[in-house]
What does this fold into?
Amino acid sequence: MARARSEERRAEIMRATLEVIAERGYRGATLGAVAERVGLTQQGLLHYFPTKEALLVAVLEDRDRWDTGGGRGGDEEGAWRLELLGSLVEYNAMRPVIVQTFSALLGESVTEDHPAREFFTRRYTQVRAGMAATLRAEYGDTLPGGLSPERAAVLLVAVMDGLQYQWLLDPEAVDMPGAFGDFLGLLKGPSDGPEAP
It folds into this structure.
């Protein structure tokens, strides 16, 4: 019972952290603000997460677990199917706070000595490998446009993350799932159907 309560409290802290980082960015977020949001003292929060950096890494790792179901891909057997990636983009469009937090942290992580820099560097290495495996499973060693899965994976990841920024800035103008579907259509190359007049 105590363990279940502790897990529930950790989940509350994680949700509050997402909200605070989405509002203020990592550098503007404080442990005090997170603690206040969940009705804890800062000391009480430190019982669950001993440092701000530990809390940040836990939030980022949880976001990845939600997105991948705990799997990372990276080989053909663990590769996602392209249509599942489309479903992930649709799912992200229903959870703007998580997307906003991730995007804020990603942007900040390129600065020197940011605590999330190592996480994102490692994550992108893994994600590119997973996307290359997905593309190889779908198209073999060469995509219709002539790119290798590894070269196309870099573009696929860039489109997914870039769409998130555009959507967050102007959700009325940017249909994130629709635009991602358009990109997947580009990867497939020209259709075999009759040409339009």
